[in-house]
User: Fold these one by one.
Assistant:
Number 1:
Amino acid sequence: MLQLKTFPRGGIHPPHEKHSANAPIVTGEIPENLFIPVNQHIGKPLKIVVKKGDVVQRGQVLAEATGFVSSVVHAPVDGKILKIFRFPLLGGQIREVIQLVPNEPGLDYGQVLRADKQETVEIGRLSAGQIREIVRDAGIIGMGGAGFPTHVKLSPPAEKPIDTLIINGAECEPYITADHRLMVEHGPEIIQGIKILKRLFNDVPVYIGIENNKPEAIKTLDVLASREGGIFVVPLKTKYPQGGEKQLIKAILNREVPSKGLPMDVGVVVQNVATVKAIRDAVFCKRPLMERVVTVSGNLVGEPGNILLPVGTPVSYVIRKFGIDAEKIRLLISGGPMMGRTCHSLESPVMKTTSALLFFDENVYKERAENPCIRCGNCIRVCPMGLDVALYVQMIQANALSAQAKEHIMDCIECGSCTYACPADRRLVQWMRLGKAIIKREN
Amino acid sequence: MDAFGKGNHKERELIVEAKLLIMDSSPLGRMEDSTRKIMYTVCVTLIPALLVSVWMFGWDAVRVLLLSCVFAVGCEALIARFSSHKIDFMDGSALLTGILLAMNVPSNAPWWMLLIGALVAIGLGKQVFGGLGQNIFNPALVARVFLLISFPVQMTSWPRAAAFDGTTSATPLGILKTEGVGAIQNISVAKLAMGYVGGSLGEISAVAILLGAAYLFYKKYITWEIPVMFIATVFVFTGIFYVINPARYANPLFHIFAGGLFLGAFYMATDMVTSPLSKKGKIIFGIGCGFFTALIRLFGSYPEGVSFAILFMNAFVPLLDRYFPEKKFGMVKNG
Amino acid sequence: MYELVMPCVILSGLALVSASGLYVASKKFYVYEDPRIDEIEAMLPGANCGGCGYAGCRAWAENAVKNRSVDPPCPVANAETMQAIARLLGIEATVAEKKVAALLCKGTHQNTRLTMEYHGITDCWAAMLVADSLKACAFSCLGLGSCLAVCNFDAMRIKDGIVHIDEEKCTGCGLCVEACPKNLLQLRPVSKFVVVTCHNTDRGADARKACKVACIGCMKCEKTCEHDAIHVQNFLAIIDYEKCTACGDCVAVCPTNAIEMRGQEVYATA
């Protein structure tokens, strides 16, 4: 029995809570209103190219890129633009959304997807440049949650040669099962997407990292991958945050991304499985990124599941669809409990990066006052980046950052392991984020 | 910007109409542990050693223990009353200090000595530095050393175990210091380990302490570096001199089990607040403690060096934290 | 007898030697310092707040003597003090008017409403990591006191969810202005009592929905002002304090009470 690969330093074992692991992906209906956020990505803000009253079609560009590190946003359904205004988004921000009134609310979204025409594409005939253009024009961004424009990630500079591709199927956050279901149900498409990516990087070997609490996904992809050359499934020990790209690269290849560096510095490009499927859809169906699978879970959801929703669907639609008692909701998390963001409005829309919506009631959140640090060292022990968290946080609180601390604080991946392990209930990640904000302001 | 998180708590009225959603920073999950739990768990693991000392010294041990704990928690409660920031005196840290202080004094210690000890431990050893987590020196040891220097006679006449005749004598280490190796030849290591000798409540049972420490290891509240390096260094240092001149220096096994080395190595030196955070720092700290303990025992004028050695090394902890941090991820030289 | 005399002699001898050493050192290593620096430092308030831009009162005093100027002025000292210092240096002083801080927001819990229950570090910058705003208005004061924490003069307090400034105690040092992550604090000359208590650049209807006393950019104030001192940009009225005479005409015509006449004490809500 081979020992499972893992990252050597730090990590925690929160309960998995994968209640929706066996729930097949269902499609939602088109809601009455779609509130499509304009800037869902990291990079230059987009320029809106529609106005109130415009009639748009599925796949039409609503906002276009303003630079290289930028993206595109499309209309998921046919409809009419009602309003462009600032609206609370998932995660507490208040930003611009384009309100689209669909022509056919209530229609099953699966039908809309089936209506997209499929093409047989010979991957070998496409050039790398063409593929990158398709990815860029499809508005594909990192769907693991970061939202970094994929075409930029797929265009590393010449001085950073890439020798390996890693596909992130770890899904280490508790509750989330969206990627797991994608791997189980859409394995062939994921493999097709991987082959497209191989085209971009001279057929380098590809490793798909999957945590071993997803045996079905491992088996499915392993069978499919073994038929292709150069694609390998790597089962990983279930430990949070295995899905962090630096931890993934360390576990699979035993290479460490240098401090303040990127995966391309060690010759690797990492892509999330959902992003890979989106790339495949863009190439084979000419379909821009306009929808995604969202896990709906939490103790208020009677039957947790995974639902494919168009971007812009308000949370209220999900509440009605899953029969959640809205009165009881006290905590709404977009993403997982470790790195996800709390949300304050039940009308906020689903975005390209929304992997899960978790609904919790009164009993789950415990009011915590911060206690003094007792230097137990738990935070330092569990930090996957080896940071001296307790010391840095004390410096941040006193606003007395040493030069060394400033270097290392920027390496924090904000995974939350430290805060999870802190017996004194200190909000270590929030302090580290404050520290990062101070350092950025000083520069 | 001067300070963060100092917004006026009392003014922050949260007017909740209907039921608003909770917004907090990620992560929202927490492990099941708390400062209180850690402190009380450490207190509980000391029970085997306390039971042995009660068996050995009888009601006197109970008296000392109770008084010491009450005074320690009471002192902290008093200080909490007048403190501008919130002090949780029931969090178990004052209780732990009280227990450890009780284990460091003779069982016939008068009540006023325990009161002074508690005041010094909590007031001078802990709160004056800023409270929990801010002190540099181990509070129980600060108090012990203070009492030792202020009341040398009371602090060095140790009742023998009540299982025997209730008379007082010096500890085996004390005998060693004043009368030399010959006088301690008949004290077997087994006797020392099980505690059949005179000493403070904490100096008497290495086995009982190991029992408690085993649970702390299991819970990962302490790690192997400090106790193992501490005891090993004492062993090696005293061993070298024993080999050179067995007539003048006691054998290393005697040194390991005599005195408060076990209590010091497993409970005092490993105190979370006053020990280093990184693995390398802990190893150096353990070696330093062992080195100075042995140095004082062999060449100093005090028979027991554990308290002084630990306090001395406590002073170096901020330096150790600074110059021996953990290895960071990604610290590779870019070619 | 001998035991008493010898220690006295020895100690006295030591004292003599040390004193002589100190005397010699103070003469040999004497550094001339203009005595006026000490005088000026004594006249200053001594808060070392840094409001002047120098590292403390002594630094300002050194600069004043070196450059023979009272510019930049100490914002904390009153006009008489500055003039006294100017006289000491033998120069004319044109002292700028005292400035005080003003909060460009009146989004109290009554005027706007909380849209979430924030649990997190009690600091405005920390809260901004979690949400853009805690209330219905996206521009509103968070009320968590980052400004209060840096005020050296105890001139701020939080009530009803926003910051209130005591204009008697405020010295206009400006530290709070930088401490606000939403740029809601502004320094205004103390005699110009008029403040637009809003910072919302959304369209009028949206702003009004978010807060009862929001500026809706209707431009009534701009049309009424006879001194060309108030203009609407991005649906928000902005006062030019160079031209403002604090006549109060704009206050009277504002339909949403978004402009206020400020007195010495804290103000009432709409």
Number 2:
Amino acid sequence: MNAHRIGLVAKKELAGLSAEKTIVFAVLLQVFIAMFSSFLLVGLTTMYDPEALEGYSTATYGIGYAGADSPLIDEFERRDDLILHRMDLDRALSALREREVAAVVYVPDTPPDAEEPVKITLYLVRNDLQSSIINVKVKEVLQDYEKELREVRADRMTSFPVGLNFPESGNDENFFEFVYGLLIPLLVLLPAIISAALIIDLITEEYQRRTLETLMSTPVTFTEMIWGKIAACAVLVPVQAGAWLFLLGLNGIAVNNAVAILLHASTVGFFLILLAALVALHYRERTSAQFIFSTALVVVLLVVMAVPRNPLNLMVRLAVDTAGPVHWLVLALAAGGTVLLGWIATVYARRIGEGAPEIR
Amino acid sequence: MSFASSIRTIATWEISQSMTTMGRHVLPLAAGLLVLLVLATAFAAQSGVHMQDGIYRIGIDDPDVARIVAQDNRFTAYLDAGPALRENRFAYDLIVLDGEIYAADTEKGRAALTALERDYEAYVSYVAAKEPDLFAAYPLWIDLEYVKSELDFQTTQSGQRVGTPPDSRVPPAPSGPVEAATLPPSAMPVSEDDLREQLTGTESDNPLARYTGIFSEGGGEDRLQTPAELSPPLPLDSIVLIFVFIFPLYFTSQFFMMSVMNERVGRAGEALLSTPIRPSAIIIGKGLPYFTVMLLIAAAITLFVGAPLAILIPLIPVVLFFLASALIIGMAARSFKELSFISIFFSTLATSYLFFPTVFANTHVISIISPLTLVILELQGEGFTAMEYVYSTALFFATSAILFYVGTVNFREERLFSENSLVSRFTDFIADMIGRDHPYVSLFLLAVFTIPFVFMAQMMTLVLFFNIPMPISLILLIVFAAFIEEFAKSLGIYAIARERPGFLTAKNLLAGAVAIGFGFLVGEKLLLFATLAQITESIFGSILFLSLQVLWMPLLLHIAGVLITGTFLLLWGRRAYVPGLVAASVVHSLYNLYFITGALG
């Protein structure tokens, strides 16, 4: 094999990609998803973290209260963002339907120290943004009331859990786990999968368009051509994954150990590309190759994710800086597997290349 | 040969064709992979998903506390003496000293704290549920009831509050008639054992349980909840629906895309085209097997998860839309890699259009623009009305029909086998729709046909900008809405300028602009009154569909927009297309802005 000729083939493939402007679609895709990742962050946090909703935090809400007197009234009185109105249930529900109040609670006349539980009915408006916020606010009140009731009934308890005191955190939903535990590994994996799909296209196209003869008439051998294509696809993986990490950085999401993450991503990408190349060489037809490869990909990913300290988990750990040196070992193992697969691909391609004149 | 029988011929041929290519070599391996897939799923379910293992470090001084987090893989726990922990506190996200918890003052520290809080709650309910007197441990149960309110979209838009006079201490009185309500009984409708089971069952399961739970009807609504169990609708659950329903459908549509592409590779479809069979019969015949397979797959999934079969109805337009786009992409791509990239790009767009509105499925009416929301409603046991069905699927039906039409018109030798660039192929497609005999009628119809796509794109921007603070979201919406409309209107003119430059004279441009302007207005009217009344009545809607209030003003605006782009094309050629488009968008935005500020001020 000749490295120079491999480089030439790779360069030709990359030039072909940019000539067709398909790469523009890839870039558009990245920007588009990046837009949504900020949508997810901004949008969902404000949706589901009531404190973050500026206009709402200062607002006060009317709550309709129906039924018997209870200590719950005092709990509500303690809040300055909820105003309790004593009303009949039917009037309260009509008011809720007209949004004169934001929620209605109905309290039965069960005494606090009764044998049976206190069953409160909470009425909210369906399909409403405001209901989500009220839900959170009323939940806090009810949790306080539950604590109070538990104290009243404490002598009936037999066992006690280990006590833990949590600091006041504001109980805010944050998207740390979503971003670092899901978004980042998926975004970094995406280029690897795209490149693997790309190598199938590049190889099967030569077969289906019958352009192999022309290629074979040049001094480039079949194996060199395959490796040129593999190289072109493999180069795209760290470039795209790096772009992701950069875009995330622009979105204010700092990622630790970016270089190590890219090394992992490139290895995973190379492995998948080689796998896809083997499938493509075997089937020489896009539909079948893509079908088999994507099914195989799901199997491989499922198995990998079920193993502790898999590359994806390590990328997550690297991103939050809790990986430890063990990730180098896993990287070395993955690289070893990739080299093995590369050797298989070379042998397979050489065998096909020797029988070249009669390619289907 | 009759139309129906030629469809049948093509369909049979398509099935046998795909069976031979896929046939002997692929199917055995696919079956093997399927077995592997089942095994892998079982392995993953047994071993758990190790994606977020060890992201938090927690230092603990008490082995009993360590046992609480032992089952949560996200935590790496370090047992150490109190002073040592205190000294190394910066190495940990959380430390627990004598039952007091200290969290690092970072986003990660707070996330770890939330995670620990959840684990602790689960542990406490695990202990409490074993209590012989359950109602001492859980003295309070909530019965959550939802009330339907008619006001919906208009009241919650942009954070404005309607009703609820904020500071009055006077009990609000309903203005309408008071309906009698039945007092809820104070007795518990559920047995103590059931409640106990519910408490231990829901908390200790793995995180995937929440996602599989989405299919069991009702969720938290039908049963009694403890205060801790109350939660606003979770945002990301519906993504599971995407994986379960949409991906298999999209995946199958890829085979159709490939089948269309294969006709073009090496001119393989030449024989087919030379037969007297009409292109429409060819397309329907080729698509029919895939349509059937996709419906069967969806039905199988529905039965498998035990959901009502009614959710297939909102999936039909999605299936049609996927097939229609697969047809167009398969006809337009020049190479396999282009096919891949366009289809990946398209699938992302389509998936986000389907997915993002559903995030608000239970919180906002805007969610209805996605048929998937209907699926969620159906799963929740609420069902949907015929009106809601029309509302959320009309755009999908309309766009699919138009895409199929465009595909049929262009299903000819010179289009299928040309090697032109993507842009020129698309303009070819459009130019083909503009008849030579009746160019103005065609332009008029073209403008009408682009309306569903314009609306789809504008809906997308509405979803995108929905969460940005008010003035910015309005301005962004105005600019993007204007740009999308101007772009859509200019398509016909651009196609003409490219294909028949001689046609583009000042007089013809004027006539064409009038035709397009009229077509646009008619299309908007038709679609809006049919479906989108709810959104148009909101303030966002008044921006997107401003043009409906006075008739002659928007007509002039539409005509002027086309004229601006057209004049740029006429004077400076095709290179001036983009500047022309920008100029037209600016004018359009200013017009909208003027009316909005007028309407608001």
